[in-house]
């Protein structure tokens, strides 16, 4: 079976098991002074999965996570996938009422919170959303008394370890029953200022998207990634969760966005994604002549932590030409990606000097009669989660997803997006 066919039939726990078997002692996660090999990361994920199973979390049920970018967030997310449960990260910018709506819409069964701030933010949701059976809090001191739904992260791990001692194969039986077409995650999105919609992504969606990104990024096993954007964003989930699993990457965590510059220098990622604002910020710290020497280019790339970067990208809006030209002069080519949560992130990649964006492997792009860009392929999501729990397809009967963007496709199949379709 070739790599692409394998990705179409893979799942998150299958990738994790492969990594732990074939790259057991390779670095997997680094969070400050704490480090995990792939063997250790999978051991932790299995303990957490067993703990969640002991709480009654089952295949198809939703688990919400409200944590910063840290190893526990990543491990909890992958642990839920081992049970066939559907994880979703709550954006840190959401207020209490938005959190309540989010939890109610997802029919969340389990919620994982980081500390006191998250417990307070979730107070209204925990009172109003009757589907929430259990709340796990990482900070033991933030666990409120008098509510039997709450338990600490330590207790979750303790119960998981005990269940594994009693039944060592309990998690394996769950994850081997997970199929590529089963839901893996829900990403919430607001399109054109409308109501938030829950985009349901399957294991096939995320594994095939990871394989497609690997085709253009060509990351080597063990190469570094930096997790710094909220994992509520599809770009971050793809880069440092799903693609990291596929590529056997070494994920570093930056829990505070304001610490990005320092984290980049420590991590020196091989693959780096940033929005236009991030690239502007990085450019503001660079001063160079018009024709920097090779030694100067290397020194300036090292100053911002991009000296080991072999593939870099941005999403919409694109970086300004002067910023692109600055980084190009240093040997850093920024690819412009186009996509959305409904397409599991990236559909096309536009490189400097080429007209339009080239579709990723497995992605088909065409233009409707009214100029709307349509997408088809394994990257297209399962659909939108409805209040009654039904997943309504986002594509038409032939599998084409209307994106809401207008554009054109040239004779070579390259896409140029020209605007948004009128509402």
Automatic annotation (TrEMBL):
Pfam families, per the entry: AMP-binding
Membrane-spanning segments: none
Stretches assigned to the AMP-dependent synthetase/ligase domain: 16-385
Gene3D superfamilies documented for this protein: N-terminal domain of ligase-like (3.40.50.12780)
ATP-binding among keywords: yes
Coiled coil: none
Record keywords, A-Z: ATP-binding, Nucleotide-binding
The protein, known as: AMP-binding protein
Organism expressing this protein natively: Saccharopolyspora rosea
